[in-house]
Structure formats: structure tokens, C-alpha cells
Amino acid sequence: MKTTEPTNLTNSNLYNEDFYLWIETTAKQLKNGKFAEIDLTNLIEEIESMGRSEKRALKSNLLVVLMHLLKYKFQPEKRSNSWLSTIFEHRRKLKEELTESPSLKTYFSDIFNECYQDARKQASLETGLSLDTFLVDSTFTIEESLNQDYLPEQH
């Protein structure tokens, strides 16, 4: 089914009224070289938003991995297949994100310690263990956090 742009909407209005149609229209304009017709302001905003979204996903997946590694290390009696599955799944997502966008590796390194601190706090809340239980400096390296075969030993 072919969609055509309604004549009563400008591209800018289309963005607010029918986002999917705006995407189709913008893609068509780009393909056809109709650059003067493109809603450049909203296109730039969406491209920048995509970059922020990629970073948020990377940060979120890293936080989940680190938190589960901490729980795995400091609560060996509660280890479960569910924890292992969560660690595996979020490592898989991280690998996929870093493979698709290798330029995010620098960002990953930059946020690793921040994510570890957040993971400490979240692990403390989830486990009921004191925050001091979890070392201030990460016991996991960046490489270990991404390594599908790595699991921490009991503290």
C-alpha cells in the first residue's frame, strides 16, 4: 500500500500529526533528492535523538550486567539460572551494540565506572546488603564485563 503525503499538512505539521508518515515522506524526499522540501529541523532532532538513544541503551545494558555480576559474586547462595540468563542476554545486547556502532567503545569506557557505582547502589537495594559490601572500585574489568564466559568468584 502506497502512502502519499496529505496536501493540507506541511512537513513540520506532519511531524506532529503523523510521525510514521513524516518518516516515509522524509525518506522519499531524500531518495528523490528533494532536499529543499525536507523538514530539516525535525530531521536533525531525530538523528540526534537516535544517538542519545544508542548511548542510553548501552548504559542501561551495562548497568544490568554489572549489577547482576555483583549479586552473583556477593550472594552465591541465591545464584540462579535467571541471573545467568540476564547476564548472558545483556552481554549479548552490549556486544551487538558495540559491533553495530564501534565508535561507542570510547563512550562505554567513559561510563564504565559511573555505571559500576550505580550498579553497587542498585545491588545493595536489591540484596539488602550494605553498600559497603560492594567495593568502591570495580572488581570487574571492562573486558570481563563483556566476556560471556566470565563469572566472578565468591568474595
Keywords summarizing the entry:
155 residues; disordered N terminus; elongated
What does this structure look like?
The protein has 155 residues and is an all-alpha fold. The chain has a domain at 55-146. Helix content is 67%, strand content 0%. The protein is built from 6 helices and no strands. It has helices at 11-17, 19-31, 40-74, 81-100, 104-127, 142-146. Helix 1 (11-17) runs antiparallel to helix 2.
Task: Provide a compact summary of the structure.
The chain is an all-alpha fold and 155 residues long. It has helices at 11-17, 19-31, 40-74, 81-100, 104-127, 142-146. The protein has a domain at 55-146.
Blueprint (SSEs and pairs):
Blueprint: H1 11-17, H2 19-31, H3 40-74, H4 81-100, H5 104-127, H6 142-146
Largest sheet: none
**What value does the average pLDDT take?**
91
Radius of gyration computed on alpha carbons = 22 Å
Structural class: mainly alpha
Compressed to H and E, one letter per element, the order equals HHHHHH
Helix fraction, binned, reads 55-70%
N-to-C span: 60 Å
Q: What's the count of strands?
A: 0
* Binned strand content: under 5%
Q: Uncertain regions: pLDDT < 50 for 5+ in a row?
A: 1-8
SS field, number of helical segments: 6
| Overall outline | elongated
